[in-house]
Amino acid sequence: MRRLGILLSGRGSNFEAIARNVRSGALDAEIAVVISNRAEAPGLALARQLGLPARHIPSKGLEREAYDALLIEALRGHGVELVILAGYMRLLSPAFVRAFPMRILNIHPSLLPAFPGLDAQHQAFEYGAKITGCTAHFVDEQLDHGPVIRQAAVAVLPGDTAETLSARILEREHEIYSEAIRIVLSGRYRIEGRRVVTEDGINVA
Fold it and tell me: Is 108 a catalytic residue?
């Protein structure tokens, strides 16, 4: 399982961090294709600058299932074995999840199950949380719900704004997402309930 398919909708900073680790050899993988539902996504432009296969598949006017069928066809056409969501702002259909069972990864800017959904950093800030963070997890058919692979805690500091907190969370996302991909690519893990445990018995969540 070495060929990665990246789905993104925006700037693609997590994609950039993953691509950097692939180029350095820190991740033993190949980025087979980068796909965006938005033609103007900066992450798509970055993929082209890096010389990676990059595709815009427009979603406007398509039902979720119909659009996801196009995605599945494109990913399979590029031989993708592991799907990486990097700021992909569309909900995946059950059919898509079933096409890549336990082979879709996502990074979410909170310590799940706290603050699922959109604007999680702002949710945590507005709630008054003292500790938040980010979670790399498998994707299942429920929103921000699949088994946790890695998490990182980020303290909410005095004087923080939602924006400064978001920036610090993003730094940790860049670290743990590649770690989570590395664990999955190694195959040296098992899933116990909602926990991902490595073969040496360490609970990596």
Answer: yes
Look-up of token digits 């098992």: 190
The span from the CA of 146 to the CA of 193, in Å, is 10
The residue annotated as part of the active site, out of 56, 78, 108, 174, is 108
- Please state the pTM of the whole predicted model: 0.93
| 61 shares a domain with 5 | yes
Residue at a domain's end among 86, 101, 116? 101
Same domain membership, residue 117 and residue 70: no
Domain extent, residue 96, equals 1-101
Structure tokens at 165: 């907190």
Per-residue pLDDT of the chain (205 residues; tens, 9 = 90+): 689 999 999 999 999 999 999 999 999 999 999 999 999 999 999 999 999 999 999 998 899 999 999 999 999 999 999 999 999 999 999 999 999 999 999 999 999 999 999 899 999 989 999 999 999 999 999 888 899 999 999 999 999 999 999 999 999 999 999 999 999 999 999 998 888 998 765 455 4
Tokens of 126: 């507005």
My answer on whether 56 and 111 are in the same domain is no
